[in-house]
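User: Sequence in, structure out. Go.
Assistant: Echoing your sequence, followed by the structure tokens.
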Amino acid sequence: MNLIETSQAIQQGNVSLGIELGSTRIKAVLVTDDFETIASGGYVWENKFENGIWTYSLEEVWEGIQRSYAQIAADIQGKYHTTLTKISAIGVSAMMHGYLAFAENGELLVPFRTWRNNIT
């Protein structure tokens, strides 16, 4: 895609957002329908040992996602002179050795258990 086609795809919402919650960074990419990466963002984080558990706070999860997205939005504005307002799809992946357990009402039941715990 050329610059004009990419800008039109962004304006029409024909882009997808990928988010990865890794063990040392949160990464995000924005791609076009033909899988061209047009922007990316990231946030460095580290798990913390709290009450005998290696964990990440949910507040930091959201902060990392928001900062990563803000970098993408700023990159889109700078490169394509358009505002990112619509996304057709969002995919999320996370570290394979960890989990979040929620109640039906969305309440976190236990702290985020990470790959560093031998109880995970």
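User: And one key feature?
Assistant: The chain has one domain: 3-94.
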